[in-house]
Design goal:
Length: about 160
């Protein structure tokens, strides 16, 4: 008996190419920021031919500059997939199916930290030593030992 439940698909984009292969992009209900989209490739009509290609973050195909200003979604991915391999293997048909509209809208409008992206706010640095660059404290050599080793290297018998 299998106790794990299958993840619920909220929206699915299917892009069919001229060679018969399909690219399927799904958004699932418990999606995190870094595993927002799930890409599959299907070669044939049976479900057994569907193989996982990769997972992608919510900012997939959005420009890196000002990505927070753009709205993510499967329509953005559809436009980008139409441009990829446009000459050699053009897109024949695309199907965008939003299965659960309210859940899909919530996932698109959710803030990144609500989807599991960690947010770090450093407000109080008064108790830490001020440095112009980052140094790992565990591997830092005390200055006295470092100076002794330099003096020993400089003295040549």
């Amino acid at each position: 008996m299998n106790t794990t439940s299958k993840p619920v698909v909220v929206a699915r984009l299917t892009v069919s190419r001229a060679d018969g292969k399909r690219t399927i992009v799904e958004v699932r209900e418990g999606a995190s920021f870094h595993k927002f989209y799930t890409f599959f490739v299907q070669d044939g009509a049976r479900r057994s031919t569907k193989t996982l290609l990769r997972t992608a973050s919510r900012n997939e195909y959005l420009p890196a500059v000002n990505a927070h200003r753009h709205q993510p979604g499967l329509d953005v991915i559809e436009k980008q997939l139409r441009g990829i391999l446009a000459q050699s293997n053009p897109v024949v048909k695309t199907t965008l199916r939003i299965i659960k509209k309210r859940a899909y809208r919530k996932l698109l409008n959710a803030s990144p930290d609500a989807l599991g992206l960690t947010r770090v706010n450093i407000t109080d640095l008064s108790n830490r030593p001020r440095r112009g660059f980052a140094v790992r404290e565990q591997r830092a050599i005390p200055v006295g030992i470092w100076l002794k080793s330099l003096k020993q290297k400089q003295v040549m018998p």
